[in-house]
Amino acid sequence: MHLDHTHDTAPAVGADALRPDGRRRALRIGLGGPVGSGKTATVAALCAALRDTVSIAVVTNDIYTREDAEFLLRHAVLPPERIQAVETGACPHTAIRDDISANLEAVEDLEDGVGPLDLVLVESGGDNLTATFSKGLVDAQIFVIDVAGGDDIPRKGGPGVTTADLLVVNKTDLAPHVGSDLDRMARDAREQRGELPVVFTSLRGPDGVGPVASWVRAQLAAWNA
After folding, report:
1. Alpha carbon distance 51, 176 (integer Å)
2. Whole-structure pTM value
3. d(Cα 40, Cα 24) in Å, to the nearest integer?
């Protein structure tokens, strides 16, 4: 199941789209969401789906560890040199919205070290429904929630749910086991987000991360146009 509104949220392209040497920099997409929603698994699945056709790298954020980066390394979704870990040492909001310098440095290191890149995924540390990325860090934002967190999450709103360029409702395979109503979640998401797109995913299902990968490809096409 997935609900996909027709409204496109193409990333804005401005002067900051160019590197100092005049080359187009990579498109940067941030992934945020609550702890346990499946952000890292979504990043891993996106890397597997896109790596054969897209030059991609990842920046992960954890407060005191490299756990998310190590997950990606264990699953060999990308060569190690394409994965950078940022230890924020504080609330994840700080590193993705307030003081983005560590993340910007990690992105620039990746572009200098393994570039040219088409896409950099920046994964936030697990946070709450208020997590948003600075526009100085990313060009578009994906917000990941999961059905096990309760089918009232879309109705509760919050900046992550209401303003992200793409809302992903993950782990739909768990809905029958946790009593979540997917139709209700779809209706509530539509009321909160208007024409902004929403997709429902189960990384265990045959379609897996397909709807999210399709959206990312559309963002890349707009960025490169």
Report:
1. 33
2. 0.90
3. 27
